[in-house]
Design brief:
The protein has about 100 residues and is an alpha+beta fold. It is built from two helices and five strands.
Amino acid sequence: MNIVRIAFLGMCICSTACLSGSLHYNQPLIASAPVAPMTIGKPRAEIWKSVVPKVGQSFFVINNLDQSSGLVNVSYSGDPEVFVDCGRIISVVTNARGTRTY
């Protein structure tokens, strides 16, 4: 059993000696701006009648509505790629096949 472990460890060391590389993370270029609260000086019923139909026609999916509390629970159904930037990961790998950048 010890011979198998030693052989496995030797293979791991030899295989990692042939592989080298680096990993770099680049943060997003633009930080997102905080969203400020907004107060609308109109009655709730008037806002409800104008806003809820427009939300239902947009890229949001309405999950739950409660007019008495003013709750509108929505989910985003579009492609978030244009709005979300998590940065970039750059990986440089060098092995027997050469150096590649991902």
